[in-house]
Amino acid sequence: MKNADLLKIAKSYGDPVYVYDAEKIIGQFKRLTNAFKGVKNLKLNYAAKALSNITILRLMNSLGSGLDTVSIQEVELGLMAGFKPEDIIFTPNGVSLEEIERASALGVRINIDNLSILEQFGSKHPKIPVCIRINPHVMAGGNSNISVGHIDSKFGISIHQIPHLLRIVKLTKMNINGIHMHTGSDILDIDVFLYASEILFETAKNFENLDFIDFGSGFKVPYKEGDIETNVEELGKKLGKRFNDFCAEYGKELTLAFEPGKFLVSEAGYFLAKVNVVKQTTSTVFASIDSGFNHLIRPMLYGATHSISNISNPGGRERYYSVVGYICETDTFGNNRRINEIAEGDILCFRNAGAYCFTMASNYNSRYRPPEVLWHEGRAILIRERETFEDLIRNQVDVKDLFAPKKEKILVK
C-alpha cells in the first residue's frame, strides 16, 4: 500500500485505525502452499486468534483454508464465516470438558492437550475422533511468552507421558485421528523445527488410524528492513520429503497440517495513529500519539518490534524520537527510533500490525477500540466500526438507586 492510500483512509475513517491489505494475505497463503507443493495432502488451518474479524475469516475460507480455533466463540465465528465444521479444528488449553463437548457437538475436530480431559472425553465419547497435542520439550520461539513447547510449558501432553496416554487410549478404545504439536512463535532455525518434527513422527507410530499430523506453526516474519525470517521454502523441501517418507513407512497417505496465523496476516496490517504532542525533555524527544497499549500491546507484552514511519512527512530530515502512547502507565512503542521529522498532527504508521494487535486490544482507560479497514482491489472497505460511548457501557448495569443519597429524617418537636 502507498502512503497516499493510508493517509486517505486515516482521513476518511479517523485515527487511530487498523488497515489490512487483502492482496498481501493472499500472497502469503499462496507462498506457504507453494512451499509444500511436494506434499500430496496439505491443509493450512488459519489461526483465528491472530486476527478474528469475520471478513478476514471469510477471506481465508475463500482461499481454501481451514480454521484453527482456541475457544468456542472462535468456533462459532468460523461457522458464521462459512467454514464447514470438518474444516475447523478446536485446539484449546485448560478449558472445561463441557466446552470441548460443545465444540464437538457442532461437528468440528477436537484436539486435546491434557490427560485428565482426554480420559474423561474418551470415556464418554469413545467413537468421536480426537487429535492429541504433544509437548515435544523443544524450546523454540522469540520470547518466553510465545515459547510453548518446552518442558515447563502448560501446553500439550509431555512425551514422557506417552505410556500413560497409550493406556488411556487402550482402556477407553478412543479413536485417535491426529497428532499435533506447536513449539512456539517466531521460529527462525528450521533445524529446531525439523528436530521437533522427528519427535512427532516417532510418537505417531504408536497410533494406527491417523488421518493427519499437525506441525503447528510459528514461522518468523520480518519486522524491519533487512530482518531475517523463516525460510519456508527450504522447510517445505526438507519437511515435505521427510513427511512423504514417513507416509510410505506408515502405509497411508496422511495430511500434513499447519496452523499459520502471524505468517499470513502480520505483514498485511498497518496501524495508523496521529501525533498529539511532540515533547522535548532533558534527554529525549517524545512523539505522543492518540493511542496506547489499549490498542497495540505487543511491544509492551512481548518486546515486539514494529517499524514506525511518518507517512505525513516521508521526505523530512530524520531525527530520533521515542514514540509513546496516552495510557497512564509506561506504554512505549519504540525508543530512540530514527524517523522523518515529526510535527504535531502527523500520521505515524506502524507496520506488521495484522497479527495479535487488534485482537488483543481493550477498553483500558475507558478508551474506544479503533475501526478496522480492509484494502481490497484498490478500495477501502470498513469491516469494523469505531466504538462509541454506547458500546462502552452496553453491558454495564447501572443500579442507580443502590447508592442514592439518603434523605435525613426531620424530627418535629
TrEMBL record:
Lyase among keywords: yes
EC number: 4.1.1.20
Name of this protein: Diaminopimelate decarboxylase
UniProt source species: Meishania litoralis
Keywords: Lyase
Keyword presence, Lyase: yes
